[in-house]
Amino acid sequence: MANHVKSDRLGWIRMVMSKRHGDDDPPRRNVSDDLRQINRFVAPMVLGALAAAVWVGWQANAVGPVLLWVFASVSAGGAAGFLFGIPRSGLAGKSEAAAPGSSAAAPAAPTNDVPLARARPNTNLEEVSDWLTKIIVGLTLVNLNDLRDEVGRICLNAAAAMRPNPTASDISAATALVVGFTLLGFLAVYLYMRLFVQGAIIRSDDSLVRYRQAVDLAERIVDKEPPPPLNQGAGSATAEPVVPSAASLSAAQAVADAAPANAHMVLQPLRQLAAEYEALRGRLEYSAQRTQSMTAIVHRMRPHAIAAAPYIGELMQSTSTGEHLAATVILQMKYMPEHMEWLARRLTEERAFIGYQAASALLARVRVAGPPECKALQDAVRKAKLARQGSGIAEASLDQLIEQILAVQ
User: Is the domain of 391 the same as that of 299?
Assistant: First the structure.
């Protein structure tokens, strides 16, 4: 009896798990299946029509002109199919999302308006397509009789390309060629646009939404972290290195995993914060409060740092001190040994605050580096220390961090 009950429980668990994983659902079609279906439909028509066009051109000793007209007709029809087949992006702004009649079951979007506005895709092509399709349909209906005469003239020109003095049979063949290949180009491009371009846009929108949500979550995590103490940072008596928290690192990695391969989109938040840093430095006099505000900017840079790591070269080569700070924060979050020399030069070439951030990154690395890397890092820092002494630069907190780096065994 106990075995029977146990068997029933196991069967119930399997049933639940199979339903959870969609085992009872009908098999879903994938892109390859759709591609094969469309190719089975389009390819025979294209090959048959092309063979007929070549045969007509061969009979008229004008294969070249006929193929040129085929290309022109397919291009014209394909252009119309492209305009009519452009899908709309699924992303919407706040006003569109709140429009009356919108579905309550729509996918949830980030509630933070800042990342939503920061990463919205450009939909100008969709608007142009909408305008042009309405104009084309309207003009076609209004000028239907004139359009018939214009198509007749085009077909007569196509027939003249086959023979100098085309017969009625030549005009009929040219009409079939022009009209048929135009419709074929329209149909083929429209189907492929709807099937593949729409899918690509949906995948892009989904990826963008995941990126927004990851950024929104990472920024909330950073906001919940305690603010930096006033006695921490460049110029303070206590030299405590700036160390990213485990939560910040985890959230920044999640943002990097969801980030699109778009340098402008990924670097834009860092560049905005870099400009904010430069404005703050120019607006406030040197004080512990200013250092705390700058450290808060560093905290806000962290969610975007790991995602921007592949593009760090753009920030390092910039003449902006704020973008140098952003590059330094990236190296705090994801240390890259190939940039060790650049990071060590921040100790002499930058302002005290950026130098302190760089020293924090170097100290964190030297504590976990192997002997060869540790020696190379300390040599670079020792060289920066001598340069600072030669220039008469003395900053107690930063000098203490440098000594801590050199003291690591």
Answer: yes
